[in-house]
Task: inverse folding
């Protein structure tokens, strides 16, 4: 069962856009797949290596701007940004990691938060290159969503597969050792600074590619969108935590859940509030309908509290616990 | 042949001289005991050797090379393994994965690392626990895991920091046997230990320190009959009688 579940999921994902023609759901699935890539990246550095990063947007935005600037200034297809975006994100990650991996734990997290903000301000100020707050607009390559969908799917599958391979190699063992105990890792001959750099650069590369995909797909970026702290950096953390920190398929599940929650709030519970407000004419509901779409951050907060209280290892990490709770009559002892 | 040498090692923490000019030489293949009362600087010496602390003065030689100031991971790579007094298991990894992670310091491929890990677990008699999470081991086996992990890095010199502390008598005997087995494999050992039974039965030579300074060095019998050592451990009145 465990072996074939990912395969079934993959087949469903492949035939999804052929069955569901609705552009809105296709759009949501593209976002989910993009978040799978970002979540996988975050999972490498934070979930496996234990260096919690609040600065994923720095890599995401760098990737997006690389693609955007290539297309806008140099008239090179923004798809080249997929490769260069990842490399440029590593270009940001390298000096940052070099300096800031001397910090441990919360201090590193704070430094990464600062990186996020620094990048956002640079993108805002460097107007000749980035158009500042005006943003960069490029012509989309395809009218249909299906090509984007399959590119996003390919990227997501490659990311998950790549993380899987890395985690079963020497690097994987080293990342986990660093997470568990950095001093012990050093005494086992692991150059912790070096391997933390490796881990961060993998994360940055994946996130940068996702950023470039975002540029290509959305066709428009500005600093407050792609360097957003709560919509990118925090969202990446939530995808990781909700899905399950340090599990291969955690980011996949997390991406589904988080995009759904995000959308649920953005549309005011799928238009429920708007409908009720129109129906009853209640002043309260009209105001609530107006603001509920901006309350998704609040929803995230509640969700995180619930997940940490009930499922500290995330949905994938605590899967057995969920199954036991939902099906208490099911025979126990089938455990691994 | 001298494998390891400490020359006038000094380590200051602010105004406190934790280690103040300790020198000793360790022959290849011997078990070298390091004793002293609490706070006398034994663990500090270990931390200086494995470069967790930067030394204030003095030099450390391994195989006639000055290794003072090398990075901690390099110290392991050149062949000095260590265990921690306060054990540091990689908690959420299985025992097997703990040892594989260590084996990668010399092994090239995963297959080789797995083989080395298996052999080392077998050698240290921990193979029956290989699929258990390290954090769920009792203290005795955690200490053993520390040794197993250090051995998986294929050291020539092994620094054991109180590996028998907190063990029950039968576990202490098992630990003694394991240490002897490791020595018979040709690994030189420097051991810090409080339990006299351990240090007396296995050490070839003992170096006693107090307040970061050398008191005496010699065979176990010589050292325990030395009045200065008795004074350091038991107080002045006992030394005179």
Result:
């Amino acid at each position: 069962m465990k072996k074939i579940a990912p395969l079934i999921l993959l087949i469903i994902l492949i035939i999804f856009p052929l069955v569901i023609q609705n552009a809105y759901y296709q759009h949501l699935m593209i976002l989910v797949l993009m978040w799978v890539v970002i979540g996988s990246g975050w999972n490498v550095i934070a979930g496996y290596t234990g260096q919690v990063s609040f600065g994923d947007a720095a890599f995401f935005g760098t990737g997006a701007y690389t693609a955007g600037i290539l297309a806008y200034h140099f008239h090179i297809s923004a798809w080249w940004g997929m490769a260069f975006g990842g490399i440029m994100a590593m270009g940001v990650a390298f000096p940052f990691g070099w300096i800031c991996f001397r910090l441990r734990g919360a201090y590193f997290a704070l430094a990464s938060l600062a990186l996020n903000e620094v990048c956002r301000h640079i993108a805002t100020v460097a107007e000749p290159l980035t158009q500042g707050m005006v943003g960069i607009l490029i012509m989309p390559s395809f009218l249909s969503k299906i090509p984007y969908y399959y590119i996003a799917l390919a990227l997501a599958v490659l990311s998950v597969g790549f993380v899987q391979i890395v985690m079963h190699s020497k690097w994987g063992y080293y990342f986990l050792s660093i997470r568990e105990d950095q001093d012990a890792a050093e005494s086992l001959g692991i150059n912790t600074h070096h391997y933390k750099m490796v881990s961060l650069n993998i994360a940055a590369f994946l996130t940068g590619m996702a950023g470039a995909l975002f540029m290509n797909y959305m066709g428009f970026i500005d600093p407050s969108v792609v360097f957003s702290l709560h919509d990118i950096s925090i969202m990446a953390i939530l995808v990781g935590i909700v899905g399950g920190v340090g599990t291969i398929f955690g980011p996949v599940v997390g991406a589904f859940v988080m995009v759904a929650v995000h959308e649920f709030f953005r549309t005011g519970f799928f238009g429920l509030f708007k409908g009720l407000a129109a129906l009853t004419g209640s002043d309260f509901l009209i105001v609530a309908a107006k603001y509920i779409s901006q309350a998704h951050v609040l929803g995230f907060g509640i969700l995180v509290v619930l997940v940490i209280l009930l499922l500290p290892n995330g949905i994938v990490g605590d899967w057995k616990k969920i199954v036991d709770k939902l099906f208490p009559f099911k025979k126990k002892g089938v455990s691994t | 042949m001298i494998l390891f040498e400490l020359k006038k090692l000094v380590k200051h923490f602010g105004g406190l001289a934790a280690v103040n000019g300790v020198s000793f030489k360790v022959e290849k293949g011997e078990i070298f005991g390091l004793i002293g009362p609490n706070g006398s600087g034994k663990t500090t010496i270990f931390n200086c050797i494995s470069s967790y602390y930067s030394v204030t003065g003095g030099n450390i030689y391994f195989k006639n090379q000055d290794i003072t100031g090398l990075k901690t991971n390099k110290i392991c790579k050149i062949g000095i393994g260590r265990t921690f007094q306060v054990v540091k298991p990689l908690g959420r990894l299985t025992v097997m994965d703990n040892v594989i992670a260590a084996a990668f310091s010399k092994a090239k491929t995963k297959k080789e690392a797995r083989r080395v890990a298996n052999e080392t677990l077998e050698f240290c008699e921990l193979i029956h626990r290989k699929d258990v999470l390290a954090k769920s081991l009792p203290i005795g086996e955690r200490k053993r895991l520390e040794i197993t992990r250090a051995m998986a890095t294929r050291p020539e010199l092994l620094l054991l920091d109180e590996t028998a502390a907190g063990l029950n008598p039968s576990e202490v005997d098992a630990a003694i046997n394991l240490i002897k087995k490791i020595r018979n494999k040709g690994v030189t050992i420097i051991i810090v230990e409080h339990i006299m039974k351990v240090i007396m039965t296995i050490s070839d030579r003992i170096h006693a320190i107090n307040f970061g300074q050398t008191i005496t060095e010699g065979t176990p019998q010589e050292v325990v009959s030395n009045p200065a050592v008795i004074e350091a451990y038991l107080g002045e009145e006992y030394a005179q009688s």
User: Anything to note?
Assistant: The CA atoms of residues 97 and 286 of chain A lie 48 Å apart. Chain A has a mean pLDDT of 86. The longest helix of chain A spans residues 192-218.
